[in-house]
Amino acid sequence: MSDFQTVILGEMPALSKLYVNAAAAAARRRVLGTHGGTELPAYTHEVRGVRADVANLTAYQHLIGETAGDVLPAGFIHALAFPLAMSVMSRDDFPLPLLGMIHLTNKVVQSGPILFTEALDIRARVENLRGHRTGTQLDVVAEVRTAGREALLWRGISTYLAKGVFLPGIDKPSAPVTQPPFSVPDPTALWQLGVDTGRAYAAVSGDFNPIHLSVLTAKALGMRRSLAHGMYLASRALADVGAVKGDSFSWEVAFDAPVFLPARVALDINTVQGDGGAWARSAYVAWNPLSGRRHFSGTVAALD
Q1: I need a surface site. Which of 55, 90, 162, 186 has the fewest CB within 10 A?
Q2: Start and end of every MaoC-like domain (predicted)?
Q3: 181 burial class (0-12, 13-18, 19+ CB within 10 angstroms)?
Q4: Shared domain check, 139 and 9
Q5: What's the rounded Cα separation, in Å, for the pair 158 and 235?
Q6: Do 4 and 127 share a domain, yes or no?
Q7: Are residues 22 and 158 in the same domain?
């Protein structure tokens, strides 16, 4: 972290502008046949004194099925920090094309409750550029603190893949990591996702990536239909775990296959009790109930 230079921004960047800039950068790279180098920018972007919008928080909680309350859900904090993470990946010295990035995994550690009334300092950076059998991947790290304090309340690591992009000097794994076959369990929930799910989540998260908004905008970027945001799906699964998780927990999700809209998604949550019968861990998995194909899976666990 000491090797990173901090850039203080006056306010949260507008995602709409960042997507426009990313499209322009992609066009320049196609015309010029260039990329932004082979190293990640050694900069941390930070915005201080960020406050959640109460109306937006309420709409978010309603959309994903979270109980209304004053505590910010972990997925809402991810959405709050996402524009700052995007601003780092929109830098001219960022070596990978931002548009078309695939979200592979997300890991969050929330150390305590964050109230909507709190002013927050939010930081984001990119690190750990490495090969993948189908391209190049990296980690985007976002951190949230109470304004003016150093104690870390929330930390998220999102791993993204630039599929088909192979940077010189970065080796790729020789073979894919094998996973055990997925055996469909009995579902504990069945979600009905309408064609407008992407637009609804974009309205509360600010993530208006065209692949999520409509069939037309998704097809323009090579998708057959629009697809649900990965963090909408993961956050809804977290909401289904419920209040049993408390205010301090770790949360992980791995994305396997996109959910094209409209869709039905089956979900199973398996809860493990710890010593004394207290909640210790919940594992969840979601799949297509027709094909049996797994969409995503993850865990929510109590912090030690």
Answers
A1: 186
A2: 195-273
A3: exposed
A4: yes
A5: 14
A6: yes
A7: yes
Residues 195 and 161 in one domain: no
Single pTM value for the model: 0.92
pLDDT score of 2? 57
Over residues 129-155, the mean pLDDT reads 95
User: What average pLDDT score do residues 181-209 get?
Assistant: 94
pLDDT in tens, 44-80: 999 999 999 999 999 999 999 999 999 999 999 999 9
Question: pLDDT-derived band of residue 1, with 50, 70 and 90 as boundaries?
Answer: very low
Q: Is residue 149 part of a domain?
A: yes
CA distance 292 to 237: 18
Task: Say if residues 187 and 266 touch (Cβ distance below 8 Å).
Answer: yes
Q: Are 233 and 295 in contact (CB under 8 A)?
A: yes
Residues 29 and 77 in one domain: yes
Q: For residue 140, what are the domain limits? A: 1-166
* CA separation, residue 69 to residues 58, 185, 200, 228 (Å): 8, 32, 20, 25
- Is residue 260 located within the same domain as residue 150? no
**Which CA distances in Å does 35 have to 30, 32, 45, 160, 166?**
9, 9, 22, 17, 11
Strand order in the sheet with 263-273: 5-9, 43-50, 120-132, 135-146, 152-163, 102-110, 249-255, 294-302, 279-287, 263-273, 189-193
Same domain, residue pair 116 and 236: no
Question: Which residue from 31, 285, 16, 254 is spatially nearest to 137, judged by alpha carbons?
Answer: 254
Which of 166, 193, 210 is the last residue in one of the domains? 166
**Domain count across the chain:** 2
Is 199 found in the same domain as 101?
A: no
- Residues 265, 284, 74, CA angle at the centre, nearest 5°? 95
